[in-house]
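Is this the right way to post structure tokens for a design question? Let me know if I should format differently. Anyway, here goes:
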């Protein structure tokens, strides 16, 4: 087709159809395998598989204008070929999934710890950790709308570096380690937290 019939568009109206179609394919994939995921898990998979829209954009969460959200949805990353054979909750896999469960619900002050061992080949590719939860509606008059404020914390047990969810600096697509002489920069606004290493 001739280039004169195409034009550039952006924004949530343009993204909605792509995201909805991707989620429909994901739902079909899991339904065919008789796996039921929570809405939070589907959102986490979609976000974890997204990639930056380009060098002009960052994943800095506290920017007044969010130009790309968590990036462009990429179904190949969200459901990589290896997952078709081994949807893993532990053990060897390029992706591990942990869905919400009433038996593992957290109460105030509680935490859950997951340990990951990364082999030599895995140390040469990015590690992406995503936490998403369904939060009940907050009080409209409250300044902070989150009812449940969860925090994603990733610790490198070899180096001692600590990374907090959504602590991604301006002009970056990766999380920086916490400067231990400063207060932790924890996200108390969003029900999605990412650590990209």
């Amino acid at each position: 087709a001739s280039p004169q019939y195409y034009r550039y568009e952006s924004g949530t109206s343009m993204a909605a159809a792509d995201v909805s179609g991707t989620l429909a394919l994901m739902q079909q994939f899991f339904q065919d395998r008789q796996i039921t995921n929570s809405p939070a898990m589907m959102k986490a998979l979609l976000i974890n598989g997204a990639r930056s829209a380009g060098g002009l954009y960052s994943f800095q969460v506290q920017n007044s204008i969010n130009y790309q959200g968590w990036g462009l949805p990429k179904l190949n990353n969200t459901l990589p070929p290896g997952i078709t054979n081994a949807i893993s909750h532990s053990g060897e896999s390029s992706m591990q999934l942990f869905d919400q469960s009433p038996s593992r619900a957290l109460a105030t002050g509680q935490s859950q710890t997951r340990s990951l061992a990364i082999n030599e080949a895995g140390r040469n590719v990015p590690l992406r950790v995503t936490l998403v939860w369904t939060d009940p509606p907050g009080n409209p008059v409250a300044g902070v709308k989150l009812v449940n404020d969860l925090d994603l914390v990733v610790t490198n047990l070899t180096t001692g570096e600590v990374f907090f969810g959504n602590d991604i600096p301006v002009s970056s697509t990766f999380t920086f380690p916490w400067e231990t002489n400063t207060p932790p920069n924890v996200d108390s606004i969003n029900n999605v937290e990412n650590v990209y290493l």
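Format looks fine. Someone answered above. Worth noting: The two ends are 41 Å apart (CA to CA). The first strand starts at residue 128 and ends at 132.
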